[in-house]
Amino acid sequence: LTLLYTCHVFGYAGLPTVLIRSVSRRPRLAKHYLFQGYLAASMSSMLAALAMVAVALPLRYQATTTQVICVLALAVPFWSLGMITEAIIKGRDQMHLIAVGNLPGNVMMVLGSLTVLLLGYGGMGVALIVVLARLLTL
Q1: pTM to 2 decimals?
Q2: 3-state DSSP of 25-90
Q3: What is the pLDDT of residue 21?
Q4: Is the separation of the CB atoms in 80 and 9 below 8 Å?
């Protein structure tokens, strides 16, 4: 999970700070900034996800651990794009929408993780829930 968090940070490449400032200065261009942010974050997050997999492979983890890391890498682009969306929302000073957008994904992550663990699916089940929760939040 530490590897996932690190790749999340590299995935959005500092773009939210720039976007918040840009949108707050020119709110009418928010859609333009959103598209440009998605484009930039797509590239950086794909590189971060590939880096996550590239780190896991040479370390020769057990096969199941490597598989979990590879599945978790799928969450990086969804998280990065979500952070871009959140930055646009912050720039437009509509913070209440952040809570509305994050609630379903966070509920899914908590309840879904608990459910898959109780059903005995282990780490891979939790990894899949994380990816789906990030997608839902996006």
Answers
A1: 0.90
A2: HCHHHHHHHHHHHHHHHHHHHHHHHHHHHHHHCCCCCCHHHHHHHHHHHCHHHHHHHHHHHHHHHH
A3: 96
A4: no
